[in-house]
Write a structure and sequence with these properties.
The structure is a single chain. With 305 residues, the chain is mostly helical. 79% of the residues lie in helices and 0% in strands. It has one domain. α3 packs antiparallel against α7 (144-155) and α3 runs antiparallel to α8 (157-172). The longest helix has 30 residues, at 268-297. The protein is globular, with a radius of gyration of 19 Å. 51% of the residues are buried. The model has no long low-confidence stretch (mean pLDDT 82).
């Protein structure tokens, strides 16, 4: 069940970057588009959970924690990614997201005050080389705005990684992964809608209503409710590192669907950079990943929440 859940997450998240791009190409204002996606998904999911009589948290500090997670993983992270995909291909956005497991590893080491292993340092250095190959001379659309979008999309991974680590505390307190997902999406959508209003975004910018609507429906039901629900469930049953490693696989999925659907392509250098980045993140987390797999083999745990 772990493997099935993990593979499904990889496939879903590998296609959501393209779905975001399609919505933006259809004229969807990025922050308004993201706000409606997560707000709609949060309301629908929480409504369903309430109908199914799921237990909601009773302590305000838990809601404050979910608000902070929503602010980081939904408002900031996805706000940046939606904006950046106006200027970078969807497959590159997915590739940059492969840095999340590295940051989960680093932030986790800081929290536990453990020293990094030499293989982890090697992986980090390789990752820097890979990023240089992606955004260096000769890569696609290496304009000023392109490079800026790449940089801030990369920095946004810090907030995604922090949120991945913090959600584990919610699960330790007995919060259902589905409930946590619903509230963090709902809280995060508020920030996105406020930012959208400040920027003056409106539906008047939409040029292809059906394209934008189709993208939004897919992102709400498949990308947000199912995809992130499974992600939080896997985080609760394993750990944040294991769950975040979907971003090793999703760039490959994103490259394939991006090339087939929108004709997106990488240069030789950027493709090589992508391989280097994926190798780097695997090296950084290899020891922890191998340890986790050994622990999972030794336990017979139910995957039912």
């Amino acid at each position: 069940m772990y493997v099935f859940c993990y593979v499904l997450i990889c496939l879903i998240f590998g296609t959501t970057f393209l779905a975001i791009k399609l919505g933006i190409v259809a004229g969807g204002p990025p922050l308004l588009f993201a706000g409606i996606r997560f707000g709609g998904a949060g309301v629908l999911l929480l409504g369903f959970l309430a109908w199914r009589k799921f237990e909601f948290p009773r302590q305000w500090k838990v809601y404050r924690q979910m608000f902070k997670i929503g602010l980081c993983t939904t408002t900031i992270f996805f706000g940046v990614m939606y904006w950046a995909e106006q200027y970078i291909p969807s497959n590159l956005a997915a590739l940059l997201n492969a840095g999340t497991p590295v940051l989960v590893c680093l932030l986790g080491a800081l929290q536990t005050r453990q020293k990094l292993h030499v293989t982890q340092v090697t992986g980090l250095l390789l990752g820097l080389l890979g990023v240089y190959l992606i955004v260096g001379k000769g890569t696609v659309e290496a304009s000023g705005i392109f490079l800026f979008a790449v940089v801030i999309a990369g920095l946004a991974q810090v907030f995604s990684a922090w949120g991945a680590l913090e959600t584990r505390k919610l699960f330790a307190a007995g919060v259902s992964p589905w409930v946590a997902n619903g509230f963090q999406m709902l809280f995060g959508s508020v920030g996105l809608l406020i930012a959208s209003a400040v920027r003056g975004e409106s539906f008047a910018e939409v040029t292809d209503p059906w394209g934008a609507f189709g993208s939004l429906v897919f992102l709400i039901f498949v990308g947000s409710i199912l995809g992130w629900g499974l992600y939080y469930l896997l985080t609760a049953k394993t750990n944040p590192l294991m769950a975040s490693t979907w971003s090793y696989i999703s760039p490959v999925v994103a490259m394939v669907v991006g090339a087939l659907w929108m004709g997106e392509a990488f240069t030789v250098l950027s493709a090589l950079g992508g391989v280097v980045v994926l190798v780097a993140v695997a090296i950084v987390n290899w020891v922890d990943w191998k340890k986790l797999l050994q622990e999972m083999r030794g336990k017979d745990r139910s995957f039912v929440s």
